[in-house]
Amino acid sequence: MPIYEYVCQDCGERYEKFVRTGDGKVELVCPRCGSTRAQKTFSVFGLRATTGKSQGVTTSPSTCGPVG
User: Whole-angstrom Cα distance, residue 15 to residue 7?
Assistant: First the structure.
């Protein structure tokens, strides 16, 4: 079940919604203001990469910060 991120077009609240494939139209309601006007946003996801004999590196948006 994928998780999609949305932003409310009325108050700017960002929130997530679990969406089942084949459920048809998804009802979106802003948890802050109750608006049904939302836009899907770009989602950032974690990545686990392994190469050769290395242990791999895990990154996620919560642990990454600005560089420099």
Answer: 6
| CATH code where residue 13 lies | 2.20.28
pTM: 0.58
**Consecutive 10-residue averages of pLDDT for the chain (68 residues):** 89 91 82 96 73 55 51
Q: Cα–Cα–Cα angle for 2, 26, 60, nearest 5°?
A: 30
Q: How many CB atoms lie within 10 A of CB 67?
A: 4
How many domains in the chain? Answer: 1
Asked, for residue 63, whether it belongs to a domain, the answer is no
For residue 36, being part of any structural domain is answered with yes
The answer to the question of residue 24 being in a domain is yes
Quote the distance between the C-alpha of residue 11 and its chain's center.
18
Say if residues 11 and 35 touch (Cβ distance below 8 Å).
Answer: yes
